[in-house]
Structure to design on (182 residues):
């Protein structure tokens, strides 16, 4: 059973002055789009791990040099649900501190970490201190996962066409999206 007032739903209710049912409606549309995008990305032969645990993330860091994380960062902005601690990254099996998340990556990890995580500057700053050689892309604001996945999808195409690293492809895809919105 889903929590009636999860963080995302409360965020929508507060920011958009929406009702609970309107907030859940917006959430379900976003979740449906994200699911379809993940299926598209998986169809390209890229590994997608749904309901990832801390162990799944740690294993992926030993097998891949580009890690894309879609998760929830529990900030202090919203009151904690069910007494869960704040300032934690939510995986399927744990609520990780920024330090615990960072420790999932081996010291010699080299690549790009793209955090599709709302307000992810705290975990990203912690991560970057321990892994200064890694490019970590994060957001200082709430994130629309669907838009971020559309950007990732475009970046994956650019990576294949132009043979460029993920971070550079994300920059180019972001520039393309920005130019369309002007």
């Amino acid at each position: 059973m889903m929590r009636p007032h999860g963080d995302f739903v409360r965020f929508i209710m507060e920011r958009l002055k929406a009702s609970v049912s309107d907030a859940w409606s917006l959430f379900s549309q976003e979740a449906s789009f994200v699911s379809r995008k993940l299926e598209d990305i998986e169809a390209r032969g890229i590994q997608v791990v749904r309901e990832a645990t801390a162990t799944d993330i740690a294993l992926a860091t030993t097998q891949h040099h580009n890690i894309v994380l879609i998760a929830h960062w529990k900030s202090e902005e919203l009151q904690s649900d069910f007494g869960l601690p704040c300032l934690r990254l939510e995986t399927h099996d744990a609520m990780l501190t920024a330090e615990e998340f960072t420790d999932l990556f081996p010291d010699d990890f080299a690549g790009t970490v793209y955090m599709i995580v709302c307000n992810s500057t705290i975990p990203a700053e912690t991560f970057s201190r321990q892994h200064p050689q890694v490019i970590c892309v994060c957001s200082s604001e709430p994130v629309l996962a669907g838009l971020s996945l559309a950007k990732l999808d475009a970046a994956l195409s650019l990576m294949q066409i132009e043979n460029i690293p993920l971070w550079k492809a994300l920059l180019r895809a972001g520039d393309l999206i920005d130019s369309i919105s002007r």
